[in-house]
Fold these 4 entries.
Entry 1:
Amino acid sequence: MSTRSIGAAGATALVVAHCAGMIDLVALPVWVGALVERFGFEPQQAGGLATLFLLGAVIASAIFAPRFTRLNQRLVAVLGFALSAAAFWIASTQTAFGPLAGLHLVAGLAAGSALSMIHGTIGHSANPHRLFAMAGIALGLFGIVYMGAVPQILIARGGAALFQVFALVMVLAAVVCAILMRNPQDLHDLPTGKWRRSVWLVIIGVSLMTFNQAMVFSFVEVIGGTHGFAHEAVLAVLIALGVVNFLIPAPLAALLEKRLDAHRVTQVGPAVQAILALIVTSVAVYPVWAPAAAFFVAVQIFTHTFAFGLLARLDPTGRAVAATPAMLMIGAALGPVVGGALGQNLGYGALGIAAVIVALLSIGFFSKASRA
């Protein structure tokens, strides 16, 4: 693997670009909320627009990741972020659903292609596990800043500012990648055959975990209300969740990299996620519910950091980790839809039961990967 070709400046570019490409993870609640409150869309329409961005990213990642070694990674990243910025800037001038739908899809396709190049290049760093953990820490900090600043900007400047902020973030990523990013070297010497069975098993396991997270986390605020908790109490948990995500899972994953077996972490992670999902969906005792909700997302971040490092070892070409956007965003796109259907028809307790079933499937795939 070409591990020495990225450098400190290149690593900085990758971390910044990771934050831009993964903006949906921190922005989704404000994003959908602004589309409802400031653009007047129905919740289903607002969710649909965000889903189009996510599906665009999934499609692009599925197309670009297998071709990672044959592309100019830096060029694709710069062009992808620049095109996404242009789409979001044009979106800031629109108010109708049709144009916004098309622009969300274009922005997602562009950002997903860029992000695949970023994650594939992280896979060629000297320590993919640690660099991905550092990117996770940066994303957590970005999330705290975003949640603190953007709602105030929307109050001051209106709904169009949402897309202007997105565009500026994408422009920053494009500029940083153009100046600092370096392509991995000697990729043409690497084999480009089919992925090993273990690679596919880990990819499916990660995708199932991200689906579980999105299915439950999308409705944490609603579930808190159905449990009878005050809105302020639920909001306090969401704030705590942002702080927890910044301070704990990625730094802990970096510290424990050599002490924990990655295969074991990927098998235990979904089980812990399922237990927390059951508490979040079924326990109406606030002192029990609040910590479970606050740490729910952290389990996914911690586990996925080990899974990322594992995939980088299993597939030295970087193509598997280049598919990270597809793994993450397919869950983010499908989870809320399934969670909404279950909650609406069977009650939110059904989400906990579904989470246990999905977690068992995820553990099964991760376990098979450890033996493949």
Note: DSSP finds 16 helices and no strands in the chain.
Entry 2:
Amino acid sequence: MTIQKIDVAYTAVATAENGRDGRVSSDDGHLDVVVNPPKALGGSGEGTNPEQLFAAGYSACFQGALGVVARQEKADVSGSTVTASVSIGKTEAGGFGLEVAISASIPNVDAATARALIEKAHQVCPYSNATRGNIEVELSVA
């Protein structure tokens, strides 16, 4: 697999303290959150967690990619939503891995058009491009 090269337009910087049971903040101060493992993983569940942050970023990014594709296709995606569900679990090799399910609700187009739009958005979205071939990403129309 060839490593993707980009012409960098922006770099986000965040720093974690104490890993999954601490704090994460961005260098510009816009993000500053407590992170705790969810109860399902033996934590307190009182803060957010890396999987929620990844789901938030992926869903927002995918929604943006959907908008790009919709403009190209002259499709109406107003009122649409994208939900990313990020799962974590043990791998066969003994480490941990992720799976993602992306569900898009696009009320102003028929089901076939919605499916075509999310397939095209999946080719455009930077998160999709970063995860492709590494983790399972399931796409569905809500």
Note: The chain has two domains: 1-48, 49-141.
Entry 3:
Amino acid sequence: MAKACLLRLQLHFGGCRSLKEKRRRLRGLRDRLGQAANLAVCESGQQDAHQRSEWSIIAIATDAGGVDRILAEAERLVEQFLDAQLVGAQREWLC
């Protein structure tokens, strides 16, 4: 049976003064993460806040180790690619 996990990431955009600037900093994140197989991603919270954002990422694989690898790579891409601070991350196993 396949395993699935939801990863919620909370981001802080220090010094960000507008939604336009926040969107500029986020540009391309969905495209980069969307290239990974077995991964779904969306901005799920804080869309109207200038300095905060929440992203939900769901990974599916045949085993828990595969899901862990997929989500670890997604977190690494977020930390490496974004001009933002990762301030929180929670995982919730769905099956």
Note: The chain has a mean pLDDT of 91.
Entry 4:
Amino acid sequence: MEKILDIVDAIAHEKGLQSANVLEALKTAFVQTAKRVINNNFTFEADIDNKTKKMHLFQTIIVVKDDDKRLEDEELSGGYIALSDALKLDEDAELEDQLQIDHNLEDYGRTAAGKLHNEIEYHIQRLVENELYSKYNSKIGTIVTGRVTLVDSDQNTYIEVDEVRAILPMKSRIKGEKFKVGDLLKALVRRVNIDKANGIQIELSRTSPKFLEQLLAMEVPEIADGIVIVEKSARIPGDRAKIALISTHPQVDAVGATVGVRGVRINAVSEELVGENIDCIEYTNIPELFVARVMSPAIISHIEIIRDEKGDAEKAIITLPADQKSKAIGKSGINIRLASMLTGMAIELVEQKGSSAQGDSPAESEQKDGVDALQALFS
């Protein structure tokens, strides 16, 4: 066989792998082939002969007494040698020494050569997949760009991303989206799996709130630089989203920076999300105030936070005028659902007693006083 180091360098260059990893894979291939061709019960090792630059394959065998019962066991005998026989190989052999018996796979003919070829292919492929797994596993939660190669009968979209093919399941596609072969699209790496049967599998998503956050980071320099932080986000893909923002710099308006001049930044993100409306909210750790902001555009009169035994906020009871209830709920309940998702609390709406949508009745005055009191509390 030609010099193994030449093979190692060639494979490493072709596959974009580390030479040391390729060498270990080849050693494993030689050992597994020896077990298959010679004896599966033998203990083999492989190493590089520094003089010839070729692979050195040897069997490790332990020296034992001539009457050792392990010599009579077919499954164990391959790992042991009687002292009398060992002395014929090495006159300095002693009990418990480990002798090395050389083997050359070329002596075992075409069968060995074929099995070695298959083993090398298998272990190099596993190495390539492991490298790709490490690469894309580190990209979970980030955006990749690829070109559509196939849309199957179940509307799952297959995308070529660099050297791998990823899948965008139907359930992870924004409502109303349709793709065709050749389309270029962005998606979030949601999950990376690897197994012997299917190799590496990368699942993408365009419906995850994290996809929205990553798009904002690409479009808004202040978010990419950490000056503005997306504290929380919630989406109903293709319809509407709410994001809670906080600024780490006193002179930077988190909402204004994210929206951009005339909405240019937020509109660019919305366009990528098939027209999804995005509400930007300034985050606060005061739960009552945060709930009030999240419930926009509804104007509310009072908020009561119900806490669990641990003191965590688990429910918000919101009192509001009757004419604000529809705004709080939103079309098909979208506003209240997003508010609940963003705050992590169940939300209960209670109509303000005696409220009215028309006239300047005493009830309406009372309602306005309640709103003013709430706003004064949060100011």
Note: The chain has a mean pLDDT of 87.
